[in-house]
Design goal:
Length: about 575
């Protein structure tokens, strides 16, 4: 009897110890911090895979006429039919995120991924259910399994984010794929039941996965329960939102006690009135930050919540601005021990993201038809155009944006600059290939950021929005020897810096290829803050900015080795294609 009792006690001790050890492998909260199993503070640096499982019109340049995914899909079906639409979406989803994408994010410095999920990849809409029983679709779960596998291989954390909840959780329909002709999440008990069941299903599937950081249970709810603002920004109680999140938490905890639960307030995630205090001891408050000042005051409300309720906070979504804004925002939150997830990874003709999807000419034709009512393309033409677009989503087809990546990681920690490309001279240095670095260090531009504070509307901080995401204005160029782009809208006193490497010491002639429709444009060259040329006038070349000329500064002395050459515009107005060192 004593032996049996001893063995039973030993078994219990071992069992409890094993469970404790297993639990220690998971991220969890400890007071105001997110920590790993050893109690080490973890700062999540992540990227949201927006536009993959949930299409948003602005990412596909359809926002003006088709914002939510179901409207986009209908436009496509009207052109190519149901069967070919399915083929397109299968290709789009297959190419949108692959192992190579996650490997790339890890190589660039991200340690986590936020996965925005559409519920309809996991379970049918309520109107398609044949009984009160909830049915499941394996596709979404398999896609999630794949992303988790790739994250685990890179030792990256994965946050599951329900971006489009059953019925849609917000009046901003583009985000949640809300169909106003059907009951929303808040108007349908069946939708809420389905959402709760989906989270229980997900939690049960991933309860033993330590590389799942946690569950972001509802993205950006924006709904007026009692207030006048349709997006819930003036709500003072948010009772239905709190109750649903409490019910989801309960369902998750029935099967999974390991993972963090991330919650978001109303008004696109930021209105927590009536929601707090938290109801779980492993919970994080998420907030979203766009187009505002990067001051402590801009996040003070959430710092106060963290202190008052002794709970960690997380910047769950941000981005869509200039490189300088990215650097400022990340510096701000990391200084206050707040992790972040920026947004998004892929977008058509993107400058403000880590990658850009090429807009193929055929897809441009479809956009012109949808938007402007131009001639309807044939079914075959439309299908081929869409399949080419889907192919362009492959990582190997993307344009990587090194300036954005540099701003989010290296520039956060230093004001130093580095070459955008290797420039050995003699040779051509394109005007758009100025150094990587922030405003005032790699370049100087008067308008370089969008705070959207006073008017609430976007600011024209960059007139070109091509190639790079700095303040420098870049547009396409059709001149000879061009790399396809040029710097324009140059103002007095602005400048660009280029790191060049002289193979031998000597005197160089530097030719500037330019166009100008103004009188009085001028520049000079500097090296290590010292003038190495006089001020040179750029004579007017044309009225319509289509005529280019070359002007040469002679006998610029350079030693062998690296130099940081500054092209300073004493008087603006010119357009610059390239500098050629001879």
């Amino acid at each position: 009897m004593k032996k049996i009792c001893f063995n039973l006690i030993l078994f219990c001790v071992i069992s409890i110890s094993c469970n404790r050890i297993a639990a220690q492998n998971f991220l969890h909260t400890e007071g105001q911090n997110i920590v790993d199993g050893n109690g080490n503070n973890v700062l999540l640096r992540g990227l949201g895979l927006g536009g993959w499982m949930v299409q948003e019109g602005y990412m596909l340049q359809t926002a003006n006429f088709a914002g939510p995914q179901h409207v986009i899909k209908q436009k496509i079906q009207d052109l190519i039919g149901d069967e070919k639409t399915k083929i397109f979406y299968d290709a789009y989803l297959a190419n949108g995120v692959t192992k190579r994408d996650i490997d790339s994010l890890a190589a660039w410095g991200f340690n986590s991924v936020r996965l925005p999920m559409h519920y309809n990849l996991y379970t049918p809409p309520i109107e398609d259910e044949n009984s009160e029983e909830i049915t499941w679709i394996e596709k979404g779960f398999q896609m999630t399994d794949d992303v988790l596998k790739w994250c685990k291989e890179n030792q990256m954390y994965l946050i599951l984010d329900l971006h489009a909840a059953p019925g849609g959780q917000g009046n901003d329909a583009n985000i949640s794929d809300y169909d106003t002709a059907k009951p929303s999440l808040w108007e349908s008990e069946a939708n809420q039941k389905k959402m709760i069941s989906l989270w229980r299903k997900l939690a049960n599937r991933y309860k033993d996965e330590p590389w799942i950081a946690g569950y972001d249970i509802i993205n950006e709810p924006n709904w007026n329960f009692t207030g006048e603002n349709k997006n819930g920004c003036d709500e003072t109680s948010n009772a239905p939102l709190r109750q649903l999140m409490v019910d989801i938490t309960k369902a998750i905890r029935e099967v999974d006690t390991n993972h963090i639960i991330f919650i978001e307030g109303n008004c696109w995630g930021n209105n927590y009135e009536g929601i707090l205090p938290v109801w779980d001891n492993n919970m994080v408050l998420s907030f979203h930050k766009y187009w505002n000042y990067n001051t402590k005051a801009s996040i003070q409300k959430f710092l106060d919540y963290r202190e008052e309720y002794n709970v960690p906070i997380w910047l769950g979504e941000s981005g869509e601005n200039s490189n300088v804004w990215f650097r400022e925002a990340i510096r701000l939150v990391e200084r206050h021990n707040i992790g972040w997830a920026f947004w998004p990874m892929k977008k058509v003709d993107n400058t403000a993201g880590v990658t850009s999807v090429t807009k193929n000419p055929g897809y441009e034709t479809l956009l012109n038809y949808w938007k402007n009512g131009e001639e309807k393309p044939s079914e075959d033409f439309a299908f081929n155009a869409l399949m080419q677009l889907a192919d362009n989503y492959k990582m190997e087809q993307l344009t990587i944006k090194p300036d954005v990546i540099d701003a989010m990681f290296r520039q956060v920690r230093t004001d130093t600059t580095k070459p955008f490309k290797e420039h050995n001279i003699p040779g051509i240095v394109y005007a758009t290939d100025y150094d990587l670095g922030t405003n005032g260090h790699a370049y100087l531009d008067n308008d370089y950021i969008n705070y959207r504070i006073d008017t609430g509307k976007p600011v024209t901080w960059n007139k070109g929005r091509k190639m790079r995401n700095d303040g420098v204005d870049i547009q396409t160029c059709n001149d000879q020897k061009s790399n396809g782009y040029e710097v324009f809208d140059i103002h007095d006193g602005e400048w660009l810096q280029y790191t060049v490497y002289a193979k031998t010491a000597g005197e160089f002639d530097v030719s500037i290829r330019y166009s100008s429709n103004v009188t009085g444009a001028s520049f000079h060259l500097e090296n290590d803050k010292k003038h190495i040329s006089k001020v040179v006038a750029l004579p007017k070349t044309t009225i319509d900015e289509t005529v280019y000329k070359t002007i040469t500064v002679e006998n610029i002395k350079l030693s062998k080795g690296e130099h940081k050459i500054k092209l300073v515009f004493d008087n603006g107005g010119a357009i610059i294609n390239y500098l050629e060192f001879k």
